[in-house]
């Protein structure tokens, strides 16, 4: 992907991304072609390839952007990772639904598994409520466990059609974590 910050390039990237997302609402991702994205965006093929190498590149750039925003939220509010997670889910409901519909939620999990361990190595985790659960233990495994556990619950919510209120899912997870915390303190 071309990282140009030129306003025209940014506008083109947004139009291409919007076109892909609109097409994902109508067609399976596997059936969407660059030609369809170009036609939907109203741009020319050359503009597409000036900014992206493939439709996967477009989707990955969109996911990466969402993850960067998520990580920024964690940096801003290290004491409330659950709040950041559920704000991310609320803001990105459509992305979650489209990824689920196309059996691509794993792409989000892959990016989380890359970014969160990197983040935990560069940030003071003392204000993170999970830190005391990991004290004295191998952090890489526990971070992977936390990511997998929390995000698999969220993915289950997405698979069920996101019908339960997010507050219900959040309170369920927080209660589980509270119980786990009590067990480790005993």
Distance between the termini: 51 Å
Q: Give the C-alpha Rg.
A: 19 Å
Mean pLDDT metric:
88
Portion of residues in beta strands equals under 5%
What percent of residues adopt helix (DSSP H or I)? over 70%
How many strands in all?
0
Secondary-structure content class: mainly alpha
Indicate the overall shape. elongated
Low-confidence stretches: none
Encode the helix/strand succession as letters. Answer: HHHHHHHHHH
Question: Can you describe what's shown?
Answer:
- With 186 residues, the protein is mainly alpha-helical.
- It is built from 10 helices and no strands.
- It has helices at 7-26, 34-41, 45-51, 55-76, 81-91, 93-101, 105-122, 131-134, 139-159, 166-185.
- Helix 1 packs across helix 2 and helix 4 (55-76) packs antiparallel against helix 5.
- The model has no long low-confidence stretch (mean pLDDT 88).
How would you sum up this structure in a few lines?
This protein is mostly helical and 186 residues long. It is 75% helix and 0% strand.
């Amino acid at each position: 992907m071309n990282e140009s910050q030129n306003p025209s390039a940014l506008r083109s990237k947004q139009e291409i991304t919007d076109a892909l997302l609109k097409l994902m609402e109508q067609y399976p991702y596997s059936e969407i072609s660059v030609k369809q994205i170009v036609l939907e965006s109203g741009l020319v093929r050359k503009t597409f390839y000036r900014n992206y190498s493939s439709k996967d590149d477009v989707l990955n750039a969109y996911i990466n952007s969402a993850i960067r925003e998520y990580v920024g939220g964690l940096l801003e509010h290290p004491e409330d990772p659950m709040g950041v997670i559920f704000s991310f889910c609320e803001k990105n409901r459509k992305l979650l639904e489209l990824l689920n519909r196309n059996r691509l939620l794993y792409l989000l999990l892959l990016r989380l598994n890359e970014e969160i361990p990197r983040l935990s190595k560069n940030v003071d985790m003392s204000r993170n409520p999970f830190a005391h659960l990991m004290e004295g233990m191998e952090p890489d495994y526990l971070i992977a466990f936390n990511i997998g556990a929390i995000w698999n619950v969220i993915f289950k919510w997405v698979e069920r059609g996101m019908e339960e209120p997010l507050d219900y899912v959040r309170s369920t997870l927080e209660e589980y974590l509270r119980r786990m915390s009590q067990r480790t303190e005993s």
